[in-house]
Structures are given as structure tokens and as C-alpha cells.
Write a structure and sequence with these properties.
Layout: H1 2-27, E1 37-39, E2 52-53, E3 59-65, E4 68-78, E5 83-87, E6 94-97, E7 102-107, E8 110-115, E9 128-134, E10 138-143, E11 146-152, E12 157-163, E13 166-171, E14 174-178, H2 181-187, H3 192-202, H4 210-225
Antiparallel strand pairs: 1-6, 2-4, 3-4, 3-7, 4-5, 5-6, 7-8, 8-9, 9-10, 10-13, 11-12, 13-14
Length: about 230
């Protein structure tokens, strides 16, 4: 009579273990390889503002990680440390994705690519993520950056996140850093007169919005030369 009892016990254990296995599999994400990164350590909450772009909230987007596209991923972009972050499943921690495996990512209508200073001609910046604003014969990239600025007063020391973006034009596979009108016209010297007239007609001001002015000039140059 012991054999039927033993058979029943084994059958019951198999059912229990199978149920546990199914629960584990249901909670384990299909994009588990994405969590091949390092633990992200947040900035001090005493610093005013946010270290993230465009804001502190998670953005839903995609990331190409080690040649695989992962869709509908929650992402945050720390532009102080130049780190791409995603929540770690089943925990309250965050993972900083390994830059060597990130070829590009996107959220909203913004796309970012990883550029390597060792292989990108003329790139006078550390390797990292750059926003690809325009991709054409002549392209426009923005290096989103923030720095931590400390202000000392008689009573206290305050710290703030301050925006410090850099702008790059890619022409003939050479990256040129530009910050003002003269820099852009130096890159586009073959259409200098036409672009000067374009700036006046459009009422574009580098002082008020340098990023928009550069973007419009790149678009116009491509239109004039294509």
C-alpha cells in the first residue's frame, strides 16, 4: 500500500514545482539580456534641477543593444554622466546600460547614436551618445550635457544642474564643432552669401536660439546643394 502513496506524493510535488516554474517564467522578461549592465547610483537629491534629458521622467522608447532592437522600453538619459538607464526588473534599482553595446536609442521623436572618438573624424569630444537631429548629406548632432555648478554664499553652498550642450555639423564625414554664426558659415563657406540672406529673411537669431538657427541652416544648405 506504500507504492500508491509514494506515487501520489511524487505527482503532487511535480505539480507544485511545475506551478512555481511557470510563475518564475511569467515574471522573467523576454528582454532579460538588456539587463547586462551596471547598477546606477543616483545623484544627490540636494542638487537643484534634474540630471536627465529631457526631464526626470521615464521615457518609453527603443534601444538597439548588442545588435538587438528592444521596443517599448522605459529609459532615462543622464546627461551629466552620459549614461542610459532602465529600471531593473523585480527591484527598485536601475541599470546603466553598457555603452559599448548601445548603437542607438530613441524616445519621443528624438534619436540618439553612439559615436566613438577613435573612429569619427574630427570629433573633438569624448565618445558617447549624441542626438541625431538631422541625418542627411550634411548632418546635425547635439551633445546633450549638464554640469553641476556650485554657488557659495555666506550661509550656504548650493548646487545646480546647468545645461551645457555642444553642437556638431557632419560634412564630408568630418565633424565640426560649432557654437555661433561664424562657425557655421566657415563650414558652409561655399554658400556663405545665400545662408546669410536666409538668416535675415527667416529672422533667425543665434543669441536667442543657437540650436534652432543651426538646424535651419543645415536644412537650407542641404536644400541648396542637393
Amino acid at each position: 500500500m506504500k507504492f500508491p502513496e509514494l506515487t501520489f506524493t511524487l505527482f503532487f510535488l511535480i505539480i507544485i514545482n511545475g506551478a512555481k516554474s511557470q510563475q518564475i517564467n511569467r515574471s522573467y522578461p523576454t528582454n532579460a539580456y538588456l539587463y547586462n549592465g551596471t547598477e546606477y547610483l543616483p545623484h544627490s537629491p540636494r542638487i537643484n534641477g534634474t540630471a536627465y534629458f529631457p526631464n526626470k521622467d521615464y521615457q518609453t522608447g527603443y534601444v538597439n543593444y548588442s545588435g538587438v532592437n528592444y521596443q517599448n522600453i522605459s529609459l532615462r538619459y543622464d546627461v551629466v554622466r552620459d549614461e542610459l538607464i532602465t529600471p531593473y526588473f523585480g527591484d527598485n534599482t536601475e541599470i546603466s546600460l553598457l555603452p559599448a553595446f548601445v548603437s542607438n536609442f530613441s524616445f519621443g521623436n528624438m534619436k540618439f547614436v553612439y559615436l566613438n572618438v577613435d573612429t569619427t573624424i574630427g570629433l573633438k569630444a569624448p565618445s558617447g551618445y549624441f542626438q541625431e537631429v538631422i541625418k542627411d548629406a550634411v548632418s546635425f548632432y547635439v551633445k546633450r550635457k549638464k554640469i553641476i555648478k556650485e554657488t557659495t554664499s555666506v550661509r550656504d553652498i548650493t548646487s545646480d544642474f546647468m545645461t551645457s550642450d555642444d553642437f556638431y555639423i557632419s560634412k564630408g564625414n568630418v565633424f565640426s564643432k560649432v557654437s555661433g554664426k561664424s562657425d557655421v558659415l566657415r563650414v558652409f563657406k561655399d554658400k556663405r552669401k545665400e545662408l546669410n540672406n536666409f538668416l535675415k529673411d527667416e529672422g533667425l537669431s543665434f543669441r536667442d536660439n543657437p540650436e534652432l538657427a543651426i538646424e535651419k541652416m543645415v536644412i537650407q544648405y542641404n536644400a541648396l546643394t542637393n
